[in-house]
Amino acid sequence: MPVDRAAAETFIWSAARLLDRHRYAMLFADGPAEPVLAAVTGYRNPDGGFGHALEPDLRCPQSQPAATLSALEMLHEAGRLDSELARGARAWIARVAAPDGGIPQALPGFERYPHAPWWSSAPASMLTFALAGVLHAGGVGDDEWLERATAWCWRAIDEVATPGGYWLKFACAFLDAVPDDGRARGALAALRPRIDPAAFAPAAGTEGERLRPLDISPVPRSRSRALFSDADVEAHLDEVENGQREDGGWMFDWLAWSPAQTTAWRGIVTIRALTWLRDNGRPY
Questions:
Q1: In this structure, what DSSP letter does residue 257 have?
Q2: Which residues contact 248 (CB under 8 A, 6 or more apart)?
Q3: Phi then psi for 5, rounded to 5 degrees?
Q4: Rounded CA separation 44/42 (Å)
Q5: Which of 11, 39, 230, 252 is the most buried (most CB within 10 A)?
């Protein structure tokens, strides 16, 4: 059944963060990008990175790779990856990167603040894929860190034996955006036989948590769609349509561990659900 768009909109206005209300207006009501930039700026630190729970599961004020990734994704969504905000974030990423371009999952210090149990300071994490991917998607070509990170991503893809679900999600963000089309399609073809279906239910996840086709390949006709059949995608779209709750919003399936985190993520995944449906040809 088609979703109740009016109920979804009411949910956004009543429950989502200010930032996500501005994103909704920009994405679905022809609203301007400037309010999104103003709201994102509130999460920025003097060092150019972003924190302050912009990534709802990591609630420390200090700049963190995950929060900076969220900021860059929203700036790309707004068509503002050429902004001063984005340039400052890129410079911060370059400063915290390892010499080979890898980005840690989280920087030390987050442990003192509320955070989801899966966060750690693991070096050279899969966030490197996502950060490189969003810059490639935005056409950023004059970035020294991006050159190192791209080489890191290619090595990581070549070396992985059995990709996990979240690893694959972030790797596909890179492979969908990197300019080398032939190499990216070849890498996806090589990954496909190595994917264990069990990886889509994370080993450390909550009961019922599972990555589905649109989590990994949200955009029609993207390179990563080769990993899924049309039937896989349509079945997931059916789930999305049926996932709208009585209050008009959607719920996520990973751990809900705090009221603020839950409220923030529900606004984000509601916009995500509407975007998936719109972009993939379903009534919304």
A1: -
A2: 4, 6, 7, 8, 9, 10, 11, 270
A3: -65, -40
A4: 6
A5: 11
Q: Which residues contact 243 (CB under 8 A, 6 or more apart)?
A: 250, 251, 273
Would you say 214 and 273 are in contact if contact means Cβ atoms under 8 Å apart?
Answer: no
Contact 200, 210 (CB under 8 A): yes
- Going from the C-alpha of 184 to that of each of 218, 222, 266, the distances in angstroms are 17, 11, 33
Query: Does the pTM exceed 0.90?
Result: yes
Token readout for 140 is 């950023």
Q: Which residues of 176-192 are buried (b: 16+ CB within 10 A; e: fewer)?
A: bbbeeeeebeebbeebe
Check if the beta carbon of residue 43 is closer than 8 Å to that of residue 52: yes
Structural tokens at position 62: 């200090």
Residues 136 and 173: their CA atoms lie apart, in Å, by 10
**Residue 163: how many other CB atoms lie within 10 Å:** 20
Q: What is the pLDDT along the chain (284 residues), one digit of tens a residue?
A: 789 999 999 999 999 999 999 999 999 999 999 999 999 999 999 999 999 999 999 999 999 999 999 999 999 999 999 999 999 999 999 999 999 999 999 999 999 999 999 999 888 789 999 999 999 999 997 789 999 999 999 999 999 998 888 999 999 999 999 999 999 999 999 999 988 877 677 656 677 788 999 999 999 999 999 999 999 999 999 999 999 999 999 999 999 999 999 999 999 999 999 999 999 999 88
Count CA atoms closer than 13 A to 35's CA, side-chain side: 14
Q: Per DSSP, what are the bridge partners of residue 50?
A: 44
For residue 254, the number of C-alpha atoms closer than 13 Å in the C-beta half-sphere is 18
Comparing CA positions, the residue from 76, 11, 45 lying closest to residue 271 is 11
What span, in angstroms and rounded, lies between the C-alpha atoms of 65 and 125? 10
Q: What one-letter code names the amino acid at 206?
A: T
